[in-house]
Amino acid sequence: MSKHFITDPKTLVKDSLCGLALSNPHLVLDEAQKVIYPKNLSAVRQKQVTLFCGGGSGHEPAHAGFVGPGMLTASVSGHVFASPTSSQVLSCLRRIYSTDHGSLVIIKNYTGDVLNFGRAVERFKSERVNAGKPPPHVAMVVVDDDVGVVNPNDDAEGGVGRRGLAGTVLVYKVAGAMANAGGKLGAVKEMADYTVSHTFTIGCALNAASVPGIGMPRSLADNEMEIGMGIHNEPGFETKPIEPASVLVPSLVRHIVDSLPFKKASGGKTGRVVLLVNNLGATSNIEMGLVTKLATEATHDAGFDPVRVFSGTYMTGLAMPGISITLTLVPDGEHGAKFLALVDQPAFCSGWTNHTRVEDTGCTDEAAQGPTTHTTPARDARWESVISTCYHNVVAAEPQVTHLDQVMGDGDCGQVLLSGATAIFEASNQLPLNDPPAALARISSLVEDAMGGTSGIIYCLFLDGLAQQLHQVDSSALTPRVWGKAMLGALDTLYMYTTARPGHRTLIDALEPFASTLESTGSLSQALDAATKGAAATAHMLPKRGRAVYVQQKENLADAGAVGLVSVLKGIVSALQ
Questions:
Q1: pLDDT (0 to 100) of residue 549
Q2: What is the per-residue pLDDT for 576?
Q3: To 5 degrees, how large is the angle CA 180–CA 186–CA 192?
Q4: DSSP of 235-303
Q5: Which of 170, 206, 286, 293 has its CA 20 to 30 A from that of 95?
């Protein structure tokens, strides 16, 4: 159904979060950053490890509905089905970071979330260190519980990986309970990691969900259902005629226990499990009761003992008519008792179906502001020439980059790159060009605001890492080899948040050869030649990362991102030689 209760799609997320805060008086909303946190945040930071999660909206009650004692300390929300920006995430991390105990970031395994949350963590580390403070104690876990769809191009190097689904809520529950009980950051992360690696989910939907302001992206026939449909309407692995629930539900449980990830985690042994039956948004309560009964029986029939059973609406795909089933393996012996005690510990948040009121001890907003950064614009004819030449090169290359992306992607790569180049060009007289680290940090912010998307955050993470590397170098010692070494260090930062590597048909195939050649030879022309050859070689590579993994290679065309990057590198080299 495409009908919605809506005023303005652009304000829907903020308005919904306002409603959550109004109906839960212990919560506060930062409307600008779409961050939900408790009124007694100051006391929580002093008491325990703090935890937060976030992602695109449309999955309510996740994630904001799980903010409260015993679960999350805060959440940050993006637009519907879109990751929050790294600046939003950074604001949340600044606000909730516990100097005494540290903080844990929990996210679902989607590219935008991994990159934006990763960049926020790196920015937080940098600003703390640059302010003369000790490195912060921040850890991150990525939930990938989906066993319904495994990308066929995933490989031994990691690949895109499995998606994060309703099992994420059990990670909140266990980690939040341990933090609430006084667990140290290392122990909280260890328990979260265990839950991630021993939790498995599969979903099934009777149709896709209508997106407010957009409508239905696709529809199944009245007699069809889809196994493995994602919470953003992503296609599953099988569309087939609707089956009786007595046939469907046992087959879903069997799919989980027969999956390779589940077998690997269980060691082929039976045992105790936590069962979570999740409403994807538009399944009636009476149907949920039936599904829960059948899932519990099927779990027993598969040889596993569901010692805890949860049923409700935990992580939705808007109003998707569907369900998901999650199994979490419980450890043996004493460790199992501790695990279940954490599962059983009360949590007081609207998404966990119980409510609480917390004494208002006052809000502390100063931590969300971040350190005040003052940079003085400084002119530098050489670097202004670099920016200008890069901009005009991107203008000239945009039609080719757009064409390449239309064939193998969503067609926006050229325009996105041009938006970033334009923003930098127009702000060039406001940059501190006499201070490379500061200039790069400012350029990274311009790129984030102008570009967005996955390519934008990849550039941002690289520029952030490069700025961090250059902070350690005297500006008078910035030879080409030093720049190359710094770029390799920046690549290491980027590699923390993406599995893309040389040979995967991405812009890395141009960036890594440029950096490594510059570091080894000190020659800009040789580095550019290596980058150009690397980009050209992508025409003969099998796509392993990005949207192109879902499209067959066509016409031996080079990767749009790599070609676009080469246009930037050509501008740099041309202006500097």
A1: 56
A2: 86
A3: 65
A4: --SEEEE---HHHHHHHHHHHHHHSHHHHHHHTT---EEEEEEEE-BS--HHHHHHHHHHHHHHHHHTT
A5: 170
Residue type, 178: M
Tokens of 331: 């450890």
pLDDT at residue 213, rounded to an integer: 87
H helix intervals, 409-545 = 413-426, 436-451, 453-471, 480-495, 508-521, 524-537
**What's the pLDDT score for residue 527?**
96
Reported residue count of the chain is 577
**Which H or E element spans position 307?**
strand 305-312
Q: What H or E segment, with its residue span, contains residue 15?
A: helix 12-23
pTM for the whole structure:
0.83
Spatial separation of the C-alpha atoms in residues 390 and 425, rounded to whole Å: 9
The set of catalytic residues is 232
Strand 238-241 and strand 224-227: the pairing is antiparallel
AA letter at 149: V
The C-alpha atoms of residue 322 and residue 335 are separated, in whole angstroms, by 34
User: Which parts of 138-271 are beta strand (E)?
Assistant: 138-143, 199-205, 224-227, 238-241
Give me the residues of the chain with pLDDT under 70, please. Answer: 1, 150-160, 354-359, 363-374, 408-410, 546-555
User: 334 to each of 131, 229, 250, 342, how far by Cα in Å?
Assistant: 44, 37, 31, 13
